[in-house]
Amino acid sequence: MNLTGPALAEGPETARIRAFLEGAGAAGGRTNPAVTVTLPVGDDAAGFRPPDGAQVVVSCDASVEGIHFRREWMTWETIGYRAAASALSDLAAMAATPVGLVVAAALPPELDVETAAALGRGVGEVSGRVGAEVLGGDLVASPGPAFLDVTVLGYAAAPTTRSGARPGDELWVTGELGAAAAALSDLERGLEPDPRARRAFDRPRPRIDEMLWLRDRVRVHAAIDLSDGVMRDARHLAAASEVALEVEADRLPAAPALEGFRRAPAGERLLLAGGEDYELLIAVPSGAMQGTARAFAVAFDLPLTRIGSAREGEGLTVSGRSNPALPAGFDHFEAGR
Amino acid sequence: MNLTGPALAEGPETARIRAFLEGAGAAGGRTNPAVTVTLPVGDDAAGFRPPDGAQVVVSCDASVEGIHFRREWMTWETIGYRAAASALSDLAAMAATPVGLVVAAALPPELDVETAAALGRGVGEVSGRVGAEVLGGDLVASPGPAFLDVTVLGYAAAPTTRSGARPGDELWVTGELGAAAAALSDLERGLEPDPRARRAFDRPRPRIDEMLWLRDRVRVHAAIDLSDGVMRDARHLAAASEVALEVEADRLPAAPALEGFRRAPAGERLLLAGGEDYELLIAVPSGAMQGTARAFAVAFDLPLTRIGSAREGEGLTVSGRSNPALPAGFDHFEAGR
Question: Quick one: A122 and A184 in the same domain?
Answer without folding.
Answer: no
